[in-house]
Amino acid sequence: MNFNYVSYDMMLDAIYCNLAALPRDLDLVVGLPRSGMIPAYAIGLILNLPVVDLQSFIDNKFVGNGHTRSLRSAIAAPHLARKLLLVDDSCNSGASVDRALIQIADSGYRGLTQTCAAIVTPYSKRLVDFSFLTVSEPRVFQWNLFHHSILSNACLDFDGVLCVDPTDDENDDGENYKRFLLNAAPLHLPTPKVGHIVSARLEKYRGETEDWLSMHGVIYGELHLLDLPNKQERIRTNAHLVHKSEIYKQTNADLFVESNLDQAQHIAANTGLPVFCVDSMQMINSLGNNPGALNRALWRSVYLRSRNVASRYLPKDITAFLKNRFGRTGR
Prior knowledge:
Elements: E1 4-6, H1 8-17, E2 28-31, H2 37-47, E3 51-53, H3 54-58, E4 83-91, H4 95-106, E5 112-120, E6 130-134, E7 139-141, E8 154-156, H5 175-183, E9 194-202, H6 206-215, E10 220-226, H7 231-237, H8 239-251, E11 255-258, H9 261-271, E12 275-277, E13 282-284, H10 292-313, H11 316-326
Parallel strand pairs: 1-7, 2-3, 2-4, 4-5, 5-6, 8-9, 8-11, 9-10, 11-12
Antiparallel strand pairs: 12-13
InterPro entries: PRTase-like (IPR029057), PRTase_dom (IPR000836)
Protein name: Putative HAD superfamily protein/hypoxanthine phosphoribosyltransferase
Keywords: Glycosyltransferase, Transferase
């Protein structure tokens, strides 16, 4: 199964590329906490408008906007906005936006509310007034990956994903390493139960590894470690790459989350399955690229930045195709 992945960069780039779709008579941007505040603040900064979260709007309170420059809309209170833009990061069923619209109406606000979701599906696009990026299911975002139900049938690397990597001094296959295993600083702690944790740690360190997982509240199905006598043997046999690829295939998992880019590319090429790389924050398929549905956003960005040159030098039928394919707004 390939997942359509959206990073922070992809979302922000799509917002920039679709600015012309947004009305310019807005007075206020209202974000839906928590993830909706990311595109809300991006839009507010670009359009130089005040931004509040939904609860602050309902309470008719500003939360402060800094003093580096004057805002384009100088309303004294949120309910004085003549027109506001309600923003969420994504829209699937439209339920979150609908609930927010009811809350806004019940708050006594009498202005005009328009809705926006940064990311929509082909179906949910019609449920909001404005959108920036259309991505089909199944999909996962950079900001929700470690809290997504996808992890229930995923394989997660350990060092560099769940916790920091050991330093050279700590990675001595002895007492320093044992202290590291028990005290490693956490990185990405998953919220749901993880199907499989797949690590190149040696089986003899299972006790310390399980203690760390318990200490940090990580719930998991199986812990797969390397059954080799020492670090030297692991390095000599290059067993870590084979180990991760084989476990991934045997478990029929939907995704592998790996810390190292080279290893992520190797696992993807070896299995033909998607791998998310934490170091580069990208989804890699067996070709080493993001799924094709997301490349459209990148090509769209290239087109919008070079369309004047394209229209001057390319045949009309080609420029017409490019405009139809990449030049439409996300509304």
